[in-house]
Amino acid sequence: MITALVVDDELPAVQELSYLLGRDERVSTVHTATSGTEALKVLEREDVDAIFLDIHMPGLTGLELARVIARFASPPAVVFVTADEDHALEAFDLAAVDYLLKPVRPERLERCVGRIVDQHDGARPHPDAAPEVITVEQGGVTRMIRRDDVAFVQAQGDYARLHTPEGSYLVRVPLTDLERQWGPAGFVRIHRSYLVAMDAVQQLRLGGPQPFVVAGGAELPVSRRLLPGLRERLAATRIRPLT
């Protein structure tokens, strides 16, 4: 269970996000503030595990407040919540756990809370540690996406398409290069045209003429040559009784 603080100068936004967080059984308490100054007062008297920050606020902005929080002896996890993506890179440079776009979708918020819970239950990362972030271009707009949001990667000639819950993004990097770079992060080659994130694999189906995995809501083919390696990786995660 974690405690959260929602900070936004717009009261309807505070109420909506507080409501969504309050529905999550992993969140025990939701505090609120409508300014950076008020948020600091809450942090002085309350034990907060995660703070959900609007970026554009009068007075002390979300980014400025995050820099203040970073100097705490035990800072809470920081999540930026905003209507634009202009400050995504700066946010991740501040070691933000996540960057949510308004209006916040419930399923996206659930994944964000999951990251916070995992961080809360494990060792707190170094303050300078930031998640792996990829810059992509889409419709003339530069977007920042987290690598751990990518469920699978599909080859498209000399390009690769990154598939996330929010959409797919084309990057000018061959699949073989991503296989080498992302292998240590848990991405496995399952087919000449696909890499899959092991954390995203939901099922492996072996019946029929073509084995396939289900990842990110999609059915992806698995080549017979690469199937043994995939099964070995899956077997390594299987829970076994103590002997």
UniProtKB/TrEMBL annotation:
Coiled coil: none annotated. SUPFAM superfamilies: CheY-like. Gene3D superfamilies: 3.40.50.2300, LytTr DNA-binding domain (2.40.50.1020). The keyword GTP-binding does not apply. GO terms for molecular function: DNA binding. Residues 134-236 form the HTH LytTR-type domain. It comes from the Bacteria. Residues 3-117 form the Response regulatory domain. The modification 4-aspartylphosphate is found at residue 54. The keyword Ligase does not apply. Keywords: DNA-binding, Phosphoprotein. PANTHER family: STAGE 0 SPORULATION PROTEIN A HOMOLOG, TRANSCRIPTIONAL REGULATOR-RELATED. This is LytTR family DNA-binding domain-containing protein.
